[in-house]
Amino acid sequence: MLKFNEQQQIDTIQGALELRPTVEEIIDKVWDEGFDNVFYLGIGGTYASGMQAVTYMNGRSDLPVYVQHAAEYYTTGNRRLTEKSLVILSSVTGTTQEVVRAVKEMKEVGATLLGFIDKAGSILAELCDYVVCYEPLGTEQIKYFMVADRLMNRNGDFDDYEEYYAELDNYLAKGLVEAEKKADSFGLEFAQKHRHDAMHYFIGAGNQWGAVYSYAMCYWEEQSWLRSKSIHSAEFLHGTLEVIDETTPVTLFLGEDEQRMLSERVKNLLPRICANYTFIDTKDYPVDGISEKNRGRVLSYLLMHCVTQRIDAYVEKLNCHPLDIRRYYRQFDY
Amino acid sequence: MLKFNEQQQIDTIQGALELRPTVEEIIDKVWDEGFDNVFYLGIGGTYASGMQAVTYMNGRSDLPVYVQHAAEYYTTGNRRLTEKSLVILSSVTGTTQEVVRAVKEMKEVGATLLGFIDKAGSILAELCDYVVCYEPLGTEQIKYFMVADRLMNRNGDFDDYEEYYAELDNYLAKGLVEAEKKADSFGLEFAQKHRHDAMHYFIGAGNQWGAVYSYAMCYWEEQSWLRSKSIHSAEFLHGTLEVIDETTPVTLFLGEDEQRMLSERVKNLLPRICANYTFIDTKDYPVDGISEKNRGRVLSYLLMHCVTQRIDAYVEKLNCHPLDIRRYYRQFDY
């Protein structure tokens, strides 16, 4: 299977899950000291991951948790982010300029900063109060949801926490590689059909909204140089639907959380106005060992990523376009 | 001038400004009774207006004010919206189904609902605790910012409140029609050049982010049936920039608030990677009688709307496409 190293992917997921005692120790300390608000700080892909974690928590908890955009912070600011606030961030390089600038200002405010910084010794790793360094890519959501889960557990919103993580520890890594194998032929077919689309619409809701936002922008636009637009399922019905016709390429991500019903409205509509649509439904990917009631948590996002990873692998090969090159980003100053 | 009734537009703005004593009475009552959080409730265009008001307040106040998406409310919910919360909404028809559903649930929670409902007697007008009915279109932002301004005035964040509104009362309506006249030839030129674009990118930040979000979706997509994508200036630099080339149609909205610097980065970059860009800068539209320090408030948004209104008028005529017809929205059930 193209660009697929089964053992490495299992090790990556298992390694991320093994960060839990470290994360718990940090969150328990922050919890015991007390805090006013929690902010997931991000820009681009990390902003999308923050949206996922916050939407996830809003449905299950009354904890005051928000997404904070890095560039909006050092311009507009946020006076509710104080010396008693917890800020969670993630960075592969540890050098994203807008995040560095926001974090420096947050340090002056005195907020507590927890960074999942892949690169030890980087500027962001040095600036954070707590740093968790783990290099393998593709585990940001596991870390973000792990923080969310521990916070909710301490807040009394997640009684089955230990049971849930026992399921993930035992079954998640294997389940994801099996899902990816199952998605492989679909990924090839989708890539063959859509790799020259002039524009592709991606639609989703709940924790799939962050997923489509990130997939359209960080994968199609940034990596594959393919034009795409993400739109929330509920918002699609308030404008974007009018530009859809028979030939418009549209892909709907269906997840398994409480916003699924918003995407199901789009699923009902699309076949009546379009003949070039695709539904990707995480329900089509059963995972042994994970309870039905737990599928709407991080699993639903991760399964979708397994599917899109197959698409990307084939688009890269068929379009003869390496995903790691950039036309402009970090190529010159602006 | 096409689709331009100067006296009617002046009367519309002046009439909206005359709602102020009513709005002040309501907000003062809510203020005196106390509240925990303020939510601007919306979907589609009203969601965009809510984003504008919230971004505006975040830069100037520590009041706990948030945007609440209507469909996300009745799915994911928001446990921080309580019986002590103030919810502000706006609707032209008073029947938007997702908003009706959210409002019904919020009433059960016991939140205080302030509705700017154009249509008296509609379901939303009946459901709200306080209703302000004013039919002329295009005044949603004035109302939303009026609420924001009174809240900030009561919170001690806006000492020059009376002086500011004296400027608006005396000079805003006339200033906007003069700006629209000034923008007319640009609107025609832009419409002629871009009315058949396969895709058009709109970029903005600050209170112009809600403006580009709404303009791309509610005007280009929904009304003109033209494909477009909105992207925040800071996010544009984290993905979307990679799909821009010489011929890509890109329009940057430059406003006058604290996020202007984020758009100026895009302004610096675009000429180096694209030869089909347009900058629309509200600074190019001086308004007599409005102080420089007050331009970054609602005026900046309203000036941009004057410019885009000229574009829309000419696109409608040249494309032989009436802006008030819909292919799908409210045409059948889904």
Automatic annotation (TrEMBL), chains A, B:
<comment type="function">
    <text>Catalyzes the conversion of a range of fructosamine 6-phosphates to glucose 6-phosphate and a free amino acid.</text>
</comment>
<dbReference type="GO" id="GO:0006047">
    <property type="term" value="P:UDP-N-acetylglucosamine metabolic process"/>
</dbReference>
<dbReference type="InterPro" id="IPR001347">
    <property type="entry name" value="SIS_dom"/>
</dbReference>
<dbReference type="InterPro" id="IPR046348">
    <property type="entry name" value="SIS_dom_sf"/>
</dbReference>
<dbReference type="GO" id="GO:0016787">
    <property type="term" value="F:hydrolase activity"/>
</dbReference>
<dbReference type="GO" id="GO:0097367">
    <property type="term" value="F:carbohydrate derivative binding"/>
</dbReference>
<comment type="subunit">
    <text>Homooctamer.</text>
</comment>
<dbReference type="GO" id="GO:0006487">
    <property type="term" value="P:protein N-linked glycosylation"/>
</dbReference>
<dbReference type="InterPro" id="IPR035488">
    <property type="entry name" value="FrlB_SIS"/>
</dbReference>
<feature type="domain" description="SIS">
    <location>
        <begin position="27"/>
        <end position="157"/>
    </location>
</feature>
<dbReference type="GO" id="GO:0004360">
    <property type="term" value="F:glutamine-fructose-6-phosphate transaminase (isomerizing) activity"/>
</dbReference>
<keyword id="KW-0032">Aminotransferase</keyword>
<dbReference type="Pfam" id="PF01380">
    <property type="entry name" value="SIS"/>
</dbReference>
<keyword id="KW-0119">Carbohydrate metabolism</keyword>
<keyword id="KW-0808">Transferase</keyword>
<protein>
    <recommendedName>
        <fullName>Fructosamine deglycase</fullName>
        <ecNumber>3.5.-.-</ecNumber>
    </recommendedName>
</protein>
<dbReference type="InterPro" id="IPR024713">
    <property type="entry name" value="Fructosamine_deglycase_FrlB"/>
</dbReference>
<dbReference type="GO" id="GO:0006002">
    <property type="term" value="P:fructose 6-phosphate metabolic process"/>
</dbReference>
<keyword id="KW-0378">Hydrolase</keyword>
